[in-house]
């Protein structure tokens, strides 16, 4: 797919920006301190503004355009569904909804064969936790500090990053623990094996002191996304699975960001041969073309609600347009080998290319990832591993990352930046040439980051 040539209509862009600033209230933002880019169009791995500037999107929007922007097959499916049945209530059997559920269940691991549809990832997490609590009759839920699970009430309290702080009233029944992360090990480990063993012991100790019989669920991002793309060490997820089995705890994997090809497998859990009891999804299920998320449910938990009503629902659950987009997206991923492409790009282009950049730029502390899902950790000092900016930096403290981001955009790359990291998360069907173009732009931007190292 060849991106459209950018065009210039600065007056139209100014009008779009003015209306936005007058009326749109943006998420996660101090409204008077932001300057949203007015976007004129997008296709494939690129988007462009009204001034003729084109950007290679290394953020995939918010890590969800897995088949890129404006894929003709997905757009056509939405158009066709709109002409046939644009909307219908969730209590009915609708072809697009049934087919989307079937295709998803075919690809989820193990016996995760029942699909509860939501409008996005946060709602998926909300409902998964509700299911776990009702299934077990317990209240507490364990989640990790380096995590993000969504912005709704329960999901934000499960989240480990600072976006939780203003909404955390300490009464949501959430207990947090440390997951493994060797580069910044909280366990003073020197190897992946030590990190795994000590992290599992820490979790088991936490369970013991919290009381296993009070814990409904443990929720993990299979591979944490926004928090840093820390791939778990071999054996860790299997160890968590074993602890959950021992104590009758529901194991929930959050695959909202890592699922649907992002890591070079249909789900990140497939890398570790793990089947959770519940799995949340969203984003890549239909590349975000129409809001859709859900929970994949195993047979045991589904049986809990066979004759007992599940006390939850959404007006737009399994919306026909969203489900038609999911059906088309999954077929595109199958027919065009998008999952295989993500694996290839990760193994042969992004992984080697990012590691080569790390060897030349003192600002790069670590590179890690899989498929089209990579993080570059930026540091002031490689020896001490001091982050390029402090944790949750803002304003002047965040100047080095702001300068890096500005340099990336100047070179035609739209980066995904969080704290002291930039993530390389392009569309899963990105070409080798596009990925190399992104690496070249990162190379130039990292030279700016290098200026802040010691």
TrEMBL record:
Presence of the UniProt keyword Heme in the record: no
Cofactor: pyridoxal 5'-phosphate
Keywords: Aminotransferase, Pyridoxal phosphate, Transferase
Gene Ontology CC annotations of this record: cytosol
EC number(s) from the headed UniProt entry: 2.6.1.55
Gene Ontology MF terms in the entry: pyridoxal phosphate binding; taurine-2-oxoglutarate transaminase activity
Gene3D superfamilies: Aspartate Aminotransferase, domain 1, Type I PLP-dependent aspartate aminotransferase-like (Major domain)
Pfam families reported in the protein's UniProt record: Aminotran_3
Top-level division of the source organism's lineage: Bacteria
Family membership noted in the UniProt record: Belongs to the class-III pyridoxal-phosphate-dependent aminotransferase family.
Xref: NCBIfam families: PRK06062.1
Protein name (record): Taurine--2-oxoglutarate transaminase
Species in which this protein is naturally found: Streptomyces fulvorobeus
């Amino acid at each position: 797919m060849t991106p459209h040539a950018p065009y210039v209509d600065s007056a139209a862009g100014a009008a779009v920006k003015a209306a936005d600033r007058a009326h749109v209230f943006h998420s996660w933002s101090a409204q008077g301190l932001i300057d949203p880019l007015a976007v004129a169009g997008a296709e494939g791995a690129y988007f462009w503004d009204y001034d003729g500037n084109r950007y290679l999107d290394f953020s995939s929007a918010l890590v969800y355009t897995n088949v890129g922007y404006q894929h003709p097959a997905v757009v056509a499916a939405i158009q066709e569904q709109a002409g046939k049945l644009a909307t219908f209530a969730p209590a009915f059997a609708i072809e697009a909804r049934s087919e989307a559920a079937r295709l998803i269940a075919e690809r989820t691991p193990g016996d995760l064969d029942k699909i509860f549809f939501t409008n996005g990832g946060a709602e998926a997490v909300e409902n998964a936790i509700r299911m776990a609590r009702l299934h077990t009759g317990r209240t507490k839920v364990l989640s990790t500090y380096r995590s993000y699970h969504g912005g709704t009430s329960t999901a934000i309290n499960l989240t480990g990053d600072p976006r939780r702080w203003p909404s955390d009233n300490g009464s949501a029944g959430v207990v947090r623990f440390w997951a493994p992360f060797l580069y910044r090990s909280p366990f003073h480990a020197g190897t992946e094996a030590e990190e795994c063993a000590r992290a599992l012991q820490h979790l088991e100790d936490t369970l013991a002191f919290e009381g296993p019989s009070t814990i409904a669920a443990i929720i993990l991002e299979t591979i944490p996304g926004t928090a840093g793309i820390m791939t778990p060490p071999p054996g860790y997820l299997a160890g968590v699975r074993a602890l959950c089995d021992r104590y009758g705890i529901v194991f929930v994997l959050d695959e909202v960001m890592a699922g649907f090809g992002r890591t070079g497998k249909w789900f990140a859990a497939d890398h570790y041969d793990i089947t959770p009891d519940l799995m949340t999804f969203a984003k890549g299920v239909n590349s975000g073309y129409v809001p859709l998320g859900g929970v994949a449910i195993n047979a045991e938990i589904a049986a809990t609600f066979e004759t007992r009503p599940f006390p939850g629902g959404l007006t737009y659950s399994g919306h026909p347009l969203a489900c038609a987009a999911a059906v088309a997206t999954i077929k595109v991923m199958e027919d065009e080998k998008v999952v295989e492409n993500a694996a290839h790009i990760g193994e042969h282009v992004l992984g080697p290319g990012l590691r080569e950049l790390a060897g030349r730029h003192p600002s790069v502390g670590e590179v890690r990832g899989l498929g089209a899902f990579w993080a570059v950790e930026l540091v002031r000092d490689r020896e001490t591993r001091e982050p390029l900016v402090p944790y949750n930096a803002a304003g002047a403290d965040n100047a080095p990352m702001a300068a890096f981001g500005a340099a990336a955009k100047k070179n035609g790359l739209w980066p995904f930046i969080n704290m002291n990291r930039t993530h390389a998360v392009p569309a899963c069907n990105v070409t080798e040439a596009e990925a190399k173009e992104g690496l070249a732009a990162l190379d130039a931007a990292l030279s700016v980051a290098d200026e802040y190292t010691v």
